[in-house]
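A quick aside before the break. I want you to see a complete sequence-to-structure record at least once, exactly as it would be stored in a machine-readable document. Don't worry about memorizing anything.
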Amino acid sequence: MNTSSSSEDDDPLREARAYNQSIYLMVAMPYLLLGTAGFVVYRGIKAAQKKAQTRLPSAITDEDRDQPPSSPGMGTA
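That is the input. The structure line, written in tokens, reads:
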């Protein structure tokens, strides 16, 4: 008769695999967290740049479009 409460408690191979999986998880977790945070920051920067580009043309008025561009170094005398 088996005196242990469960036969799973005596399986050293299963215990070793469980420890292995937990070690892999602990090693991978910092990379997953930093990667996720980096991706969120990257998307935020890209969204801000896109928003700034779409706002820029609306700041130009009709008067600005009618005037020729000024050359640098030429003064208004």
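Two observations worth writing down. The chain has a mean pLDDT of 81. Helices lie at 12-55, 62-66. We'll return to this after the break.
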